[in-house]
Structure formats: structure tokens, C-alpha cells
Gas vesicle protein
Amino acid sequence: MNDNSKVVVALLAGLAAGAALGILFAPDKGDETRDKLSQSLKDLGDSIKDKAADEINSLASLKEKVVSSIKTKLRSVEEEYSDDVEHA
């Protein structure tokens, strides 16, 4: 996980904690407070799922780049090896 991801996760966790505390100390009825808290937690869960999906896509892209780079290098080494064998 890179530094930006850590910052976003920490920000989301802080936001959730602040929202939960604000809701718990708000002068609403218990039912309303639980509903608000439930909605806040659902929103946080959705945010985390979205961030996780973004990270997974990023890792998949990185994997494709690494695989492509390795294949290119292998072809290059294979061609060098072929040339060396032909000239031997």
C-alpha cells in the first residue's frame, strides 16, 4: 500500500469515527441515532469497497506491465542466445 492509500484510509477512518461520535452525542431519539449510525457505517463500507477496487485495478495494471516487461526481456535474451549459438 503506498503512502497516498494510507492517507486516504486514515482519512476515511477519522471521518467515520468523527461521524459516529457526532451522531452518538446528538440529541436525537435512539432509533434515529441508530439509523444515522447505520447509514454512516454503510457509507464508510462503500467507500472502503471503492478504494479496495481501485487498488486492485492498480495492482492488476502493474502486474500487466511487469509481465510485459519480463516477456520483452526474455525475447531479447532468447534472440541474443540464438545469435550466439549460430555464430559458434
Notes: The chain has a mean pLDDT of 83. Residues 3-87 form one domain. Helices lie at 3-24, 30-87.
